[in-house]
Amino acid sequence: MHILVIGGAGYIGSHVVKALLNRGMNVTVFDNLSTGTKINLFDNADFIEGDILKYEQILFAMKQNVDGIVLLAGKKAVGESMENPMKYAFNNINGVVNVLNAMVESGVNKAIFSSSAAVYGVPQYSPMDEEHPVNPMSFYGFTKHETERLLKWYDELKGIKFVSLRYFNAVGYDEQGDVKGLEENPQNLLPIVMEAAIGKRDKVKIFGNDYETRDGTCIRDYIHVTDLGSAHALALELLEKGGASQILNLGTSQGSSVLEMITKTQEVIGRPVPYEFAPRRAGDPAVVTAKADKAREILGWEAQHSDLDNIIRSTWNVYNKQ
Ligand code: UDP
Question: Which of 4, 97, 170, 198 is the 20 to 30 Å CA partner of 57?
Fold first, then answer.
């Protein structure tokens, strides 16, 4: 199978590329390098620099004998999406429409989409399964859900089969050290913890310690990007075998609190991580965890790299070299 990985030079994309190469697939990366970096490219994957907002560019890439695509390109900062929804509408919706139209025009009919737990909004129960009501609390989450709706229509009208993977909190780095690119101005907890550990920032601000959780800080479901990568490979194999379109959660159902992440990091790296308690961040639910039984049943997928020790060690190996 020849797979076009759109956004394959980014943090999650590069781990997906590695997983597909490991399963013997041929890969072409399509990326505009706006947040992705050439450091994340693999020698045994082709690379086309291009932008999904430019229809001719994505059409050209799609016409390179592609059997299926993985669509990761898009904007992903929740806070920014609330301040600048236009940017998110343009990149995450117009861009997706271009990709889908280019698929139809070039006869490509298999798509894996990187969706998010953000589609659910405030959990009514946890762990959340795929039947949990969808009610995004951010414009970012809205764009992810809109893409899923577009995919359903393109499936019905144009026969594009898709697997939408709703990631919970993506963390960790390739354990062989094959992915080295660090995100600029990270917004997520673990890279922020790492930056505090290497002295790149003063301290971690813990957003709220008065939640109704075991230590008062928020609980999230942290899933290693290597485990996300293998789910993409399995999802492509499912569609290759003629499987039906699916929406699947990817998480561990094991929640970790913000304080536990910091304490565990200190333990694993043997250094203090300065932190302070700060007010709650608007829109943060206390607990967000995934029920991922459906991915296990349908894909035969298991999270194998997502114990905290592994997540932190693999991330530290990259940050420690800064
Ligand atoms: N968080 C924090 N300080 C930070 C960044 C994040 O306390 O500087 C908390 C945040 O409130 C949430 C958890 O860490 O409970 C994970 O946040 P992140 O932004 O990584 O992912 P989210 O769960 O919001 O998608």
Answer: 170
**Residue 48, class by beta-carbon neighbours within 10 Å (0-12 exposed, 13-18 middle, 19+ buried)?**
middle
β-strand 169-171 against 222-224: which pairing, if any?
parallel
pLDDT in tens, 147-177: 999 999 999 999 999 999 999 999 999 999 9
Q: Indicate the top mutation candidate among 185, 207, 210 to test ligand 1's pocket, ranked by most ligand atoms within 8 A of CB.
A: 207
What are the residue numbers of the active site? 140
CB 276 within 8 A of CB 206: yes
Span 233-258, mean pLDDT? 98
Instruction: Assess whether the C-beta atom of 189 lies below 6 angstroms from ligand 1.
Output: yes
According to the model, what pLDDT value does residue 225 have? 98
DSSP assignment of 111-136: EEEEEEGGGT-S-SSSSB-TTSPP--
How far apart CA 280 and CA 212 sit, in angstroms, is: 13
Ligand 1 atom at shortest distance from the alpha carbon of 206: 7
Confidence of residue 141 (pLDDT cuts 50, 70, 90): very high
